[in-house]
Amino acid sequence: MKVLVTGATGYIGGRLIPELLDAGHQVRVLVRDPERVSHRPWTERVEIVAGDLRSLQRDSGLGDGIQVAYYLVHSMVDGSRFASTDRQCAVNFAQAMQGVPLVIYLGGLLPRQAETSEHLRSRAEVGEILAAHLPVTEFRAGPIIGSGSASFEMVRYLTERLPVMLTPRWVKNRVQPINIRAVLDYLVRAAEREPLGIVDIGGEQLTFREMLEGYAQVRGLLAGSNSSLQFPTPWLCPSSKASFTTWWRTRLGPESSSPRCSRWTTRPPA
């Protein structure tokens, strides 16, 4: 099967490509700067196309011969305009992928309460744009845990460096982290399925504080106690318009469950 991967330089895309190759697929990747993937172990085994989703044209030929296209792009690095950038990229991609039988998109789990961050609203909007024009399987995942992932590295950075924390109130929020291996398994297997619509994936529910304490316990950083010193402070809480991962990561520096334990809930396409 011939597949297209966008976001090949990102955390998920860079790990998905060798999984797809090992599964016997032919892989085409879209990157803005081919030099950024020139030293990857899989570089010689894929077709590299230079291009930018922000200016991608309908007649680009990017989708020619493609049976499955992975959309693994989001624009948090573009500052306050990331939502409009995400929107434009999704529209351009949808137009360029007309005729492709399946698009697989990795978005974010939405909380049940009405208020969500601008980041998550943008991820959901991208899914809506893709589904309005293409046959889509949209995986909605919580924090993805694996060495090098933004969520895991933030947990590690905070826990390793701060024995006493003044924390924002969202440390009490419940999340559903999921192992990177489970996410990759879902993404690869979905290529063999019909479009599934929205699929929520995630492991055990726990608070962000419990994630921090769990890591500290495994690392032996809880001296003589099963609880860490954390003091929630309202004035440290970022705006609801911000992604808390991005907010903390920009201030503090660089950034497991198994597939059998993950929650798989399917909502069919409308």
Give the helices and strands as they follow along the chain. Answer: EHEEEHEHEEHEEEHEEHEHE
Give the termini distance in whole angstroms.
27 Å
Structural class: alpha/beta
Which strand order does the major sheet show?
3-2-1-4-5-6-11-14
Overall number of domains: 1
User: In the CATH hierarchy, what is the architecture at level 2?
Assistant: 3-Layer(aba) Sandwich
Main sheet properties: 8 strands, mixed
Mean pLDDT: 80
CATH topology: Rossmann fold
The residue ranges in which pLDDT falls below 50 over 5 or more consecutive positions are 233-270
Using only C-alpha atoms, the radius of gyration works out to 19 Å
Number of helices: 7
Task: Report a brief summary of the structure.
This protein is α/β, with parallel strands linked by helices and 270 residues long. The protein contains 7 helices and 14 strands.
Question: Your description of this structure?
Answer:
There is one protein chain. The chain has helices at 11-22, 82-96, 118-133, 150-161, 180-190, 208-218, 244-252; strands spanning 2-6, 26-31, 47-50, 68-71, 102-108, 136-141, 144-145, 164-167, 174-175, 178-179, 197-202, 206-207, 229-232, 263-267. With 270 residues, the protein is α/β, with parallel strands linked by helices. The protein has one domain (2-267): NAD(P)-binding Rossmann-like Domain (Rossmann fold), CATH 3.40.50.720. The strands form four sheets. Strands 3-2-1-4-5-6-11-14 form an eight-stranded mixed sheet, sandwiched between helices.
SSE layout:
Blueprint: E1 2-6, H1 11-22, E2 26-31, E3 47-50, E4 68-71, H2 82-96, E5 102-108, H3 118-133, E6 136-141, E7 144-145, H4 150-161, E8 164-167, E9 174-175, E10 178-179, H5 180-190, E11 197-202, E12 206-207, H6 208-218, E13 229-232, H7 244-252, E14 263-267
Parallel strand pairs: 1-2, 1-4, 2-3, 4-5, 5-6, 6-11, 7-10, 8-13
Antiparallel strand pairs: 9-12, 11-14
Helix pairs in contact: 1-5, 2-3, 4-6, 4-7
